[in-house]
Amino acid sequence: MKKIAILGSTGSIGTQTLDVVREQGDLQVSAMSCGSNLDLFEKQIREFLPSMVSVKDEALAKELTDRIRDLSGISIRFGIDGLMAVAAENDATIVVTAIVGMLGIRPTIAAIRARKNIALANKETLVTAGHLIMPMVKECGVSLLPVDSEHSAIFQSLNGERENRIAKILLTASGGPFLHKTKAELEHVGVQDALKHPNWSMGRKITIDSATMVNKGLEVIEAKWLFGVQPEQIEVVVQPQSIIHSMVEYEDGAVIAQLGTPDMRLPIQYALYYPKRRPLSGERLDFARISEIRFEKPDSETFMGLPLCYDAIRRGGNVPTALNAANELAVAKFLNGEISFLTIYEILEDAIRNTAFVADPSVEEILSTEQSVYDRIRSKW
Ligand code: NAD
Ligand code: MG
After folding, report:
1. The whole model's pTM is what?
2. Which of 93, 118, 146 is the last residue of a domain?
């Protein structure tokens, strides 16, 4: 039986990963971690009986120990060491990285070094440490399988084409809840408006990233690392219905796309069973009913997430880290009601312009860049 570990089992990707495990019936969960949702985590532990679990801090680990006293043989860890243990110290062969943010960097590296394949949902790790992760994946001989729906679509569109050069990647975007809004209208949008994504139900951070279009910008950087293309070869196309999940254009002009209903279980399952496809329950596309698929150019004047991310990749070094760290804190502040929606862009621009440049940052330098960006933001906003 194939064994898997899940970082972030109680989140949007984590719970859908467990749906796949439940539906397929031939995967075993050997380790899993969560932040602080102990009620759900306890239920998951009782259902899947992993041999190792981890939570955010020591107090939660103590509480969990009390709650599952009747179960034997489960090692309970906490904090970053716990996350790294769940990623590496068990008999899983594939690790699903479903935690949010740069917190994923060290556990992902630990998993790769332990020769585990990675089903990567945690895009922030590639955005900030892609230059370290990609060579490590090669050196350790593991597979890095994309879970992000667009990257899974690109990956599927590359099947059988590995020898052929990519002319262009067409990365599709839904446009999020504020598509067609003007800057003046965005001045007064609130947290609840931003959390209403038209097509996808996801965690809070990525839902805000979709509203700002920063998510698409992070995905451009993610695609650059995963598929070895230049940023200029990646074109973002707004496809408001989320039917086409992304496309690859080859040198002869042929465009190959992957289409489907918006259901994250498909890319999760594809990564877990690659290269095999398995049956999956759920709705199917009904082309007679759809009748048309619409496209638009992104409005990069209003939604500055995209141009800011292109700017960060062009500058390179630790600038994508500065942008990503600024975004993590800015989104947290927005969700907390501390800043307005448009202030998120101001904070990102400030971080891109004012972070001390490091050309080829190590993990320590990435984490110290994160810290200095946080300090700067906290002193100004
Ligand atoms: P989420 O907020 O729903 O879940 C996050 C998980 O991380 C939870 O299990 C939470 O308990 C855990 N966590 C939070 N803080 C923690 C801590 N300090 N220590 C340990 N665990 C902690 O997030 P999500 O929407 O599932 O997104 C996960 C990742 O996948 C993100 O990088 C996101 O960009 C990416 N992604 C998500 C989707 C989606 O549909 N949700 C699609 C594509 C990519
Ligand atoms: Mg995506």
Report:
1. 0.98
2. 146
The CATH number assigned to the domain holding 33 equals: 3.40.50.720
How far CA 198 is from CA of 69, 192, 221, 228, 349, in Å, comes to 43, 13, 24, 31, 27
Are 341 and 198 in a shared domain? no
Q: What is the largest CA-CA distance in the chain?
A: 63
Q: Which amino acid is at 76?
A: I
- pLDDT single digits (tens) 139-172: 999 999 999 999 999 999 999 998 999 999 999 9
Contact call for residues 16 and 268 (beta carbons, < 8 A): yes
Spans of the chain below 70 pLDDT: none
The reply to whether 62 and 112 lie within a common domain is yes
Q: What does each C-alpha distance from 316 to 4, 225, 357 come to in angstroms?
A: 34, 12, 9
Measured in Å, residue 120 CA sits from the centre of ligand 1 at 11
Predicted pLDDT of residue 158: 98
Domain that holds residue 375: 316-381
User: To test ligand 1's pocket by mutation, which of 13, 64, 172 has the most ligand atoms within 8 angstroms of CB?
Assistant: 13
Domain boundary among 119, 146, 173: 146
* 164 within 8 A of 251, measured Cβ to Cβ: yes
Cα(3) to ligand 2 centroid in Å equals 25
Q: At a CB cut-off of 8 Å and minimum separation 6, what does 55 contact?
A: 33, 34, 35, 36, 38, 41, 61, 64, 76, 77, 78, 82
**182 and 129, same domain (yes or no):** no
Local structure of 343: helix, strand or coil: helix
Residues 30 and 129 in one domain: yes
Kindly give the number of the ligand 1 atom that is closest to the alpha carbon of 206: 34
Domain membership of residue 267 (yes or no) is no
First to last CA, the chain: 51
Do residues 292 and 348 both lie within one domain?
Answer: no
Residues with CB under 6 A from ligand 1: 8-14, 33-35, 37, 56, 83, 98-100, 103, 121-124, 148, 200, 202-203, 206, 264
pLDDT per residue over 59-77, tens digit each?
999 999 999 999 999 999 9
